[in-house]
Automatic annotation (TrEMBL):
Species lineage: Bacteria, Bacillati, Bacillota, Bacilli, Bacillales
Keywords (A to Z) from UniProt: 4Fe-4S, Iron, Iron-sulfur, Metal-binding, Oxidoreductase
A single MF term (Gene Ontology): 4 iron, 4 sulfur cluster binding
Native organism: Paenibacillus agaridevorans
Alphabetical list of InterPro entries matching this protein: FAD/NAD-bd_sf, HdrA-like
Protein name: FAD-dependent oxidoreductase
PANTHER family: COB--COM HETERODISULFIDE REDUCTASE IRON-SULFUR SUBUNIT A (PTHR43498:SF1), FERREDOXIN:COB-COM HETERODISULFIDE REDUCTASE SUBUNIT A (PTHR43498)
Length: 633
């Protein structure tokens, strides 16, 4: 039977289940009879078993990896989703993100780059899934079928869909399972010895009371977060049209992916405050359609269902207009037709857990390894647009950094691990760590960790503090196919620069960016009014208790755009931004009197008439450390 017909049969079963108030339940431990199950690939049960070793909340790829890993380690697992979804795969299969941001090893051969057979970090379950799909982009339906097959093949996994809501069952501050409400409003309590939160937004951890930040809150912008995307579809793709994409000077193409069409960013939005277009990322499907990831929708709160639905409506209204623009702007697309939008939004950012360790920009800047690393990342720190007038940024490109197991363990709450993009990452490094391949690696690690914690009769927090326990976990992960090597690499050149401590602080506070090649910091180049003003503005956002001035007004009177920043002007602006009233000609002496700047930084400044970017970074770094008491390292 074709996959399409399988899903039709499954849908009929789902409607039946909803009609009688039952969730959609697949128990792979008891194999279905040949009649209905062979057709649908699923079975229905009137009641799920109420006790499990592990409950995995969330059916995105990270949750699937966690469930598979736990099941393969002999645990009885329930995989459950509370979003009313009818298929596995979440962002990839319902958000239609079929071209992945890949987590590559530092060195890639020319053949790997040409063929798409890359050397991935971590490997494991992600690698096995990816290899079966093939290509740099994949067919979303094929991905869903493969996820279903992988889950169905594990006898220890039960699958529960059609759930209206789910929340943690707590005993004090320990998560002991989930309380779920089915589509008919019936409430049930499911017990577990461990719970893994693989929801996109860290919903279970939040409901359990684990601390977290939202969006750019850690950077002083609690209402700012990356734009969401609604992927849209075009039909009518042929091989000739596909090959014509590759003949454009601004566009790259391989067998399954295309990227470029940079003029798309000139799209005249019908609602420019809420929606915009960037260059196109395109993935081919097997049915002659393509999926396009390019639309940015602003000011959507992923934690507010009303806001999410509004974002969907905005995107669905705009998508046909975008397609008409593409058809008239690009000759190669004139014969393509609009064919709809994804069922779900692609949400990049919402909650950021506060765990036993929180990944920092310093970790990525220095390509740090950790004694408890259970996965590795390498993707660029890609910060997408925050709103109209902002154009996003590549903060820097790490070679390889470790993700500690402690970043999966929430503070204050036991019995729970959090995997995927809502794990314990600061918002800037999250721009790299949010990618799906890394998230699947954290899920795989969490599933194995559940086995260790249960067998040892210890909490996840105790496991996170145990060097012998983590060593056992790493051995388990290697045994199931994960690659936990830290590849050899030279220290980045910027790390040896005398102003590197200042650069590290400036990057951590979002004051500067390095781009894809880590050179845009321009440490030896002269600073400018615009750069220094940005730094002062960020100081006010990051440390408002200590820097309360208005830098725009402070600097407007004596710094012209393009002129170098003198030591006197820099010191004056820094003091006034901190609320210290002083005459400009007395500012340097006042800084020295207050002892905000270290002797090492004073000694670096050789030309007070024109400070370099690196020197201004050092001034700010010292002032934050000695005045606000915060050191970035």
């Amino acid at each position: 039977m074709s996959p399409k017909k399988k899903w039709i049969v499954a849908a009929v079963w789902l409607l039946f289940a909803v009609a009688i108030g039952l969730p959609w339940f697949m128990d792979t431990a008891s194999r279905p009879s040949a009649s209905s199950a062979e057709a649908a690939g699923l079975t229905l049960s009137k009641a799920a078993i109420e006790k499990y070793d592990v409950i995995v909340a969330g059916t995105d790829p990270e949750g699937i990896a966690a469930a598979l890993s736990a099941a393969r380690n002999g645990l009885r697992v329930l995989l459950v989703d509370g979003k009313g979804r009818d298929r596995l795969g979440g962002l990839l299969t319902l958000g239609w993100l079929n071209s992945l941001d890949l987590n590559l090893a530092p060195q890639q051969t020319a053949e790997a780059k040409r063929s798409g057979n890359y050397d991935f970090l971590n490997k494991g379950i992600f690698q096995k899934w990816y290899d079966q799909l093939g290509g740099t982009s994949f067919d979303a339906n094929a991905a869903a079928d493969l996820f279903e097959q992988m889950v169905r093949d594990e006898r220890n996994i039960s699958l529960l869909l059609g759930v209206k809501s789910m929340e943690p069952k707590l005993e004090g501050k320990v998560v002991r399972g989930l309380a779920i409400t089915d589509g008919n409003g019936r409430r049930r309590v499911l017990q577990a010895r461990a719970v893994i939160d693989a929801t996109q937004d860290g919903d279970i951890a939040a409901l359990a009371g684990a601390p977290y930040t939202v969006g750019r809150e850690d950077l002083g912008n609690p209402d700012a977060r990356m734009a969401v995307t609604l992927v849209f579809k075009l039909s009518g793709m042929t091989e000739d049209i596909w090959q014509s994409f590759g003949r454009r000077k601004d566009t790259g193409v391989d067998q399954s992916s295309a990227w470029g069409f940079l003029e798309a960013s000139n799209y005249p939005s019908s609602n420019p405050d809420r929606v915009a277009l960037r260059g196109l990322n395109i993935g081919r499907q097997k049915d002659g359609t393509i999926l396009v990831n390019a639309m940015h929708i602003f000011d959507v709160d992923p934690l507010d269902p009303v806001s999410v639905q509004e974002g969907l409506r905005i995107g669905r209204r705009e998508a046909p207009l975008i397609v008409e623009f593409l058809k008239t702007t690009f000759e190669e697309m004139k014969d393509l037709s609009y064919a709809g939008t994804a069922p779900e939004l692609y949400v990049r950012e919402s909650r950021h857990l506060q765990g036993e360790y929180r990944l920092t920009m310093a970790d990525l800047m220095e390509n740090r390894d950790f004694w408890d690393a259970i996965a590795y990342g390498s993707y660029d720190v890609d910060i997408q647009r925050l709103g109209r007038g902002d154009y996003g940024a590549i903060m820097m490109s790490p070679r390889q950094y470790g993700v500690p197991f402690r970043s999966l363990v929430p503070k204050e709450i036991d019995g729970l691990l959090v995997v995927g993009r809502s794990a314990s990452f600061d918002s800037l490094p999250h721009g790299s760590a949010r990618v799906v391949p890394l998230g699947m690696a954290t899920g795989e690690a969490a599933g194995a960790a559940a086995r260790l914690a249960i067998d040892g009769g210890i909490s996840f927090r105790q496991l996170a503090a145990s060097r012998s326990g983590i060593s056992k976990l790493q051995t388990m992960l290697r045994g199931q196919g994960m690659d936990l090597r830290m590849r050899e690499a030279k220290q980045p050149a910027y790390q040896g620069h005398p102003t590197y401590p200042g650069l590290l602080a400036a990057v951590s506070m979002g004051m500067t960016l390095g781009g894809y090649d880590n050179n845009r910091w321009d440490l030896d180049g002269l600073s400018s009014k615009d750069r220094y003003l940005t730094m002062m503005q960020r100081l006010v956002k990051m440390h408002p208790r200590y820097f309360r001035g208005k830098p725009d007004g402070v600097m407007a009177g004596y710094l012209k755009s393009g002129e170098p920043v003198t030591l006197e002007n820099a010191a004056h602006a820094l003091l006034l931004t901190s609320g210290v009233q002083v005459k400009r000609e007395q500012a340097v002496a006042e800084l020295k009197k207050r002892d905000w700047i270290t002797p090492a930084t004073w000694s670096l400044i050789s030309h007070p008439g024109g400070l370099t970017n690196g020197e201004t970074f050092m001034l700010v770094r010292d002032a934050v450390a000695r005045h606000a008491g915060v050191t970035y390292r």
